[in-house]
Amino acid sequence: MKREGIKKHLALYFIAGSQDCPKNIEEILIEAIEGGITLFQFREKGKGSLHTSDEIEQLAVRLLQICRTSNIPFIVNDDVELALKIGADGIHVGQDDAKAGDIITRINGMILGVSVHSAEEAKRALADGADYIGVGPVFPTSSKEDAKEARGTAVIEEIKQAGIDIPMVGIGGITAENAKSVVMAGADGVSVISSISRSEHPAAAARALKKVING
Ligand SMILES: Cc1ncc(COP(=O)(O)OP(=O)(O)O)c(N)n1
Ligand SMILES: Cc1ncsc1CCOP(=O)(O)O
Ligand SMILES: [Mg+2]
Predict the structure, then answer these.
(1) Index of the ligand 1 atom closest to the CA of residue 113
(2) How far apart are CA 208 and CA 197, in angstroms?
(3) pLDDT tens across 29-41, in order?
């Protein structure tokens, strides 16, 4: 699945690691899938995350199995080796991670996502072979300790206006209340952590987001 094929999966892109989940992450993922998420990223990092590589790999495999039974593509954040080892569907890297241009030859057609914060970075991600970009933080977030300043939908609009043709999601502080503005600005979908993972009812939270995005 490359650029055009990925667009439909970007509609509601759920990201989580155990640190984001007040209850069992597997239960939350199952409920999020019930609610209609279209893509999942395993992002085990930051305060409260698992420590050992064995624990992380075992959790990744369990979550991958859940996604496989529902045909939800499974993306690994940051860790190219883990993505390759467990046979993930894709890898997501940021500007401070392994460089997209360097890993593209190693990932054998896996989906490649890249985080960008400007039109310039979006242009480079496209040239490096990224299948999609994550743009943000759009709104302030508490889920990423080293998040950059939130820039609203301005960067999404800049990328669209510059004619950089690459599938994209907005990320950071997105809720059912503000998701529409992200899609209206030109994103193909939204990526969320806490709106789903910290909801008392993850399925209902995903459903509410989906309704706004599709509506
Ligand atoms: C879809 C999506 N967009 C952006 C990010 C952020 O990636 P990065 O800047 O590398 O930060 P970390 O998530 O690694 O802390 C993402 N993970 N997913
Ligand atoms: C991983 C990441 N990258 C930019 S903001 C962010 C965190 C998004 O989490 P939330 O949806 O809870 O604001
Ligand atoms: Mg990263």
Answers:
(1) 1
(2) 14
(3) 999 999 999 999 9
